Amino acid sequence: MSSAIPSSRLHGLDTLRAAAIVLVFAYHYQVFVSGAPTFGWLSEIGWTGVDLFFVLSGYLIANQLMSGLQGGQRLSLPRFYGRRLLRTLPNFYVVLALYWLLPTWMGGREMPPLWRFLTFTQNIELTPGTAFSHAWSLCIEEQFYLVLPAVLMLGASLRQHRRALAWSMIAGMTLAAVLWRDHLWQRWGTQDPSLGYYPHLYYGSLARLDEFLPGVAIALFKHGHPRRWNACMARPGWLLALGLGATLMMLTAMLQGYYLPGYGYGRAMSAWGYSALAWAFGLLVMAVLAPQGAWARVRIPGASSLARWSFALYLTHKPIAHVLSRALSDAGVARDSMLAVPLIGLACLLGGWLLYRGVERPFLRLRDRWIPTSFMPSPRATTAATRSPQHA
Predict the structure, then answer these.
(1) DSSP letters for 145-168
(2) Which of 47, 49, 27 is CA-nearest to residue 38?
(3) CB count in 10 Å sphere of residue 297
(4) Is 359 in contact with 382 (CB distance < 8 Å)?
(5) Are 178 and 271 contacting, i.e. CB atoms less than 8 angstroms apart?
(6) Rounded Cα gap, residues 30 and 26, in angstroms
(7) What is d(CA 110, CA 94) in angstroms, rounded to the nearest whole number?
């Protein structure tokens, strides 16, 4: 069976990925559809779904690469990037073409230059409210994927001194991001958010790339310190309590003080809040990876499907919600009514499913046929575990 449709998945990671897309939908519904917290506090903190996606992506890709490298395989950058492009570009190009060819139907907003999307630089100094603005997070992900494999190839060995260097780099890059965001907040934090904060800090590459690092750290811990990793995995209850506690603490802080009315985003949360949230999510990811933990063993109905469709759902939900909410408003139906919310939600699910089945899944099958692995076998290879089904 193709790894594009794996028969065995980690239920905990599916649950987190499903939770991430639900959070994003709740937030975007408030911002772009109803103008009110339709889903209560989920709408208020729903933007954190993107941060959770960043952490998950950091772990999934780093785990895949470290597994192969530790097994003695040689990473092929052309193969890796080829697989990545076949994973990303088909869905992205279909939605981008719709925005480009049908601007009025897709929202009627100004479109940034096409080359910004094609080069995955659209997030840099992005003006909020422009067409296909939510592609900013995809741009940052692709920038991360461009850098990480080359970095891992420079330190393919996981010997002790290399591990110490890796941990120092993770700590140093996290600190650098905090200091950089603090600098950006001092310059832009008290100005109009749409002109200063969002273009330079919220959407900025250097201000957000550190949120992948907790996922990378989890993979490094798993492959670089196997005995300690196994000891942690043997305590799923403690891990879950720690992950949930840290996550709830951060989300509560954001609900209570992340945005200050009449002032904007506070300095403390803007400087270190994004990093702290990502590391809290990282603890949650570790908790769901424990094989004997509740989240690893319990399969939540629908979570696996939402996880598989999450990329397609992310790309399509905003334009679908815009078109349908406008039609319902013209018919006199309130956008946050008991009729509009489920209709728009189901329409977004249908759109994501269609994109996944019609575009994403066929290209994943082709990818696994043309480029079955990111690695080239070497004489000392000891394992064939080169792909992560969860990341397919």
Answers:
(1) HHHHHHHHHHT----HHHHHHHHH
(2) 27
(3) 12
(4) no
(5) yes
(6) 7
(7) 18
Interstrand relation of 259-260 and 264-265 (parallel, antiparallel or unpaired): antiparallel
Q: Measured at the alpha carbon of residue 329, what is the angle toward residues 327 and 331, in degrees to the nearest 5?
A: 75
CA–CA distance, 31 with 272 (Å, rounded to integer): 24
Question: In this structure, what is the dihedral angle of CA atoms 381, 383, 387, 390, given to the nearest 10 degrees?
Answer: -160
- For the chain, how many residues are written? 392
Burial track 92-115 (b if 16+ CB lie within 10 A, e otherwise): bebbbebbeeeeeebbeeebbeee
User: Whole-angstrom Cα distance, residue 214 to residue 285?
Assistant: 9
Tokens read off for 284:
């949650």
Q: Per-residue pLDDT tens for 240-275?
A: 999 999 999 999 988 887 766 666 678 888 999 999
Residue 220's contacts (CB-CB under 8 Å, 6 or more residues apart) are 62, 66, 163, 166, 167, 170
Instruction: Spell out the alpha helix ranges (H) of the chain.
Output: 11-29, 41-45, 48-70, 77-101, 114-118, 136-154, 160-188, 197, 205-208, 213-224, 226-233, 236-253, 267-268, 274-289, 294-297, 303-330, 340-355, 361-370
Whether the pTM exceeds 0.90: the reply is yes
pLDDT tens, position by position, 186-229? 999 888 888 889 999 999 999 999 999 999 999 999 999 999 99
Bridge partners of residue 365, in order along the sequence: none
Measure the CA angle with vertex 43, ends 22 and 346; round to 5°. Answer: 45
The two three-digit tokens of residue 114, written as one number? 């096409």
Name the strand (E) or helix (H) holding 259: strand 259-260
In angstroms, rounded to a whole number, what is the distance separating the alpha carbons of residues 345 and 292?
34
Assess contact for 295 and 327: CB atoms under 8 A.
no
Q: Residue with structure tokens 């603090």?
A: 182
d(CA 32, CA 49): 16
What tokens does 306 get?
A: 């939402």
How far, in Å, are 50, 126, 210 from residue 206 at the CA level? 16, 14, 8
